[in-house]
Design goal:
- With 347 residues, the protein is an alpha/beta fold.
- The protein is built from eleven helices and seven strands.
- Helix content is 51%, strand content 12%.
- The protein has a seven-stranded parallel sheet with strand order 3-2-1-4-5-6-7, sandwiched between helices.
- Strand 5, helix 8 and strand 6 (266-273) form a beta-alpha-beta unit.
- The N and C termini lie far apart (53 Å).
- The structure holds nicotinamide-adenine-dinucleotide.
Length: 347
């Protein structure tokens, strides 16, 4: 008796051969049919014409059934703001790995150059570091000029520059008493200048680059804008009112602009990452001295069904999907990449 496991091992090979036979048979039948047609039409080189036409048909067939790739991204130019940061660098690497020419933009030009050099080394793709301040139109126009000269017209924009500030963050989650120190640690103790800065960086810092860089997309009549939002855009997180309000506005702008630019074939979408242990939120999630999770860090892990923080590479799939023509009928959506955090009510 042949054991059942042997049949299970053989099954994939059997199906592979079955499909191959079907393809060969189709090819031969096509050729015979086209040979007859070319003879009837008194065409020269009947056999060669029939073989050529059969190959075209076969490629079409295979193309139709297997055309799931990110090949359309090869050679396209992407500008990514905040590309020198932790998530921006990871997203830049991912796009370069798919053959995209990446312009890594950052206020910190050394960080941007370092990321671009690493990309060129790892992927062999063209990548440049460019100094750009997302809050200054003149700086963005200058950056665009450099990108156009060195890489070409921009067809993908990732708005990744953003972040929070400790002085726009309350010390307490709830105001529970009227003492001077309690008020200082609450909403009433927030530094309005810091609040404005956080709002500007995340909201204006998305609006201005979009205004400047999508001009290329208008000319090309094709483009994809991907904004980096946050979990705090859906339901505000405690302690970070400026960041929450700004990211919520980013979602609103994403939807508004997706409608406004739809007829120009420019798609506007966003990714809302869950929680990632990076420089800007480390002070909230881990204890500086011990490195242990803070109460807030633990709360997040407990509220994340997958029970962990994200890794920047977890964002790559959503990024490639939104950048590529695979999602050509998708605009105005915000994709949470969060280990289930947004879907979980906590009960
Ligand atoms: N880290 C997380 O858990 C998390 C979660 C959700 C969303 N996000 C969002 O992801 C994005 C990237 O976050 P990150 O954790 O990689 O942060 P990061 O601080 O590592 O990177 C931000 C980058 O933006 C640059 N930048 C700051 N101001 C700028 C300006 N005016 N012009 C141009 N560049 C400027 C910084 O130099 C830095 O390189 C941000 O929009 C952030 O809000 C992060």
């Amino acid at each position: 008796m042949i054991p059942v496991e042997c049949y299970i091992d053989i099954l994939p090979v059997f199906f592979y051969n079955l499909v191959s036979c079907f393809i060969y048979l189709t090819f031969i039948l096509d050729m015979l049919l086209l040979y007859q047609i070319s003879r009837k039409l008194s065409m020269k080189n009947n056999f060669r014409s029939a073989a050529k036409a059969s190959i075209v048909l076969l490629c079409r067939f295979l193309g139709d059934t297997m055309n799931v790739s990110f090949d359309d991204l090869k050679g396209k130019v992407c500008a990514i703001t905040g590309g020198g940061g932790i998530i921006g660098a990871s997203l830049s690497q991912a796009l370069a790995g798919l053959g995209v020419k990446v312009a890594v933009l950052d206020l910190n030009v050394e960080a941007a150059n370092k990321v671009a050099e690493q990309i060129a080394k790892d992927t062999g793709s063209e990548a440049i570091g460019v100094e750009a301040n997302v809050l200054q139109e003149a700086s963005l126009l200058e950056a665009k000029k450099t990108i156009n000269e060195k890489l070409g017209k921009i067809e993908i924009l990732v708005n990744c520059a953003g972040g929070n500030h400790p002085r726009a963050t309350t010390q307490s989650e709830f105001l529970t008493e009227l003492s001077e120190s309690a008020l200082k640690d609450s909403f009433y103790g927030l530094d309005v200048t810091a609040f404005q800065k956080v709002f500007d960086l995340n909201f204006l810092g998305t609006l201005l680059p979009t205004m400047v860089f999508t001009k290329d997309m208008l000319e090309l009549k094709h483009g994809s804008v991907i904004n980096i939002s946050s979990m705090s855009s859906y339901k505000p997180l405690t302690k970070v009112p400026a960041y929450s309000a700004a990211k919520s506005s980013v979602n609103n702008l994403t939807e508004w602009l997706s409608t406004h630019l739809a007829k120009m074939n420019i798609r506007v979408n966003a990714i809302a990452p869950g929680f990632f242990l990076t420089a800007q939120n480390k002070f909230l999630l881990t204890d500086e001295k011990t490195g242990d999770l803070t109460q807030r860090g633990n709360k997040i892990i407990n509220r994340t069904p997958m029970g962990k923080f994200g890794d920047p590479a977890d964002l790559n799939g959503a990024l490639a999907y939104l950048a590529s023509d695979i999602s050509s009928f998708v605009t105005g959506i915000i994709i949470p990449v969060d280990g289930g955090y947004n879907a979980y009510s906590g009960v």
